[in-house]
Sequence to fold (326 residues):
Amino acid sequence: MKDREMGYSASPKIYVLHENDEWVVPLRAAFDQRGLPYEEWFLNDGVVDFSAPPPDGVFYNRMSASSHTRGHIHAPEHAKLVLAWLEAHGRRVLNGAQALRLEVSKVEQYLTLEQFGIAAPETVAALGDDQIIAAAARFDGPFITKHNRAGKGLGVRLFHDTAALSDYVKGPEFDDSRDGVTLVQQYVEAPEPFITRVEFVGGKFLYAVRVDTSQGFELCPADVCRIDDAFCPVGDGDERPMFEVIDGFSSPLIAQYEALLAANDIHVAAFEFILDADGKPYTYDLNTNTNYNGEAEAAAGVSAMGALADYLGSELARTAVPRRAA
Fold:
């Protein structure tokens, strides 16, 4: 946020806080279709004048844990300051400081899942090469490594023994997490190569997506990934699509997920889980900067960005009324 942006409009609007212009394109279209007033704050850098109050409106945080992969290394830290400023002034913030805290730490995600009785894969956090290798020794079977501060499946690798892990960690291909913390995690072997991603808007279940994992771990659902991310493959011809909205999805997890979101003041999110051979679900990711796949939505006749724009519009109307009355 630049200081030239401190000349605020008197009319309340929706403010979208983010660091990836391409991910906001479909949301802009949804706003425009509904005639909703909005403004974007690009939080890769900027100035926060703590002596001045923020503008009136609704603030939607879309900061991503993977911002560093786009060269925006300190964007989450800057977003943390902006969110603290907004919340201190009592502004309506959607996906605020607590959402960001969980977004950038899978360890904190797993601890939160445990509080709500949601099973996650057994996980050990390690800092340091030798500690990563030692952590893997506790697993009898295959295990994976992943970044604590990640996004897009960064750092996910499958290993069958500690010798292979040692070669990787001590070799030139080792990819360290942004915060230096590597997770060593139980490998959940699914009978079929897919995971389920469950989307929520306004803290309520919207739909679930079946995601084909046969081509890798980096499963960014955004349409832009098809162009810019070689690790987001999409099937062609007669192949089954990578993303499919599940018709009539139901699960006891929905109520648990909604309770977790409500308790943590998270309004827009996606959970991802995988089923083991016995059909037991393991939730391994909470994404508070969720994106959607246009082809899957078109095939199912749904629009998460439309639902999100409607939700933000209703929040703006609800927030603006008492301020006008005051």
In short: The first strand starts at residue 13 and ends at 18. Confidence is low (pLDDT under 50) at residues 1-8, 223-237. The chain has three domains: 3-102, 123-186, 190-307.
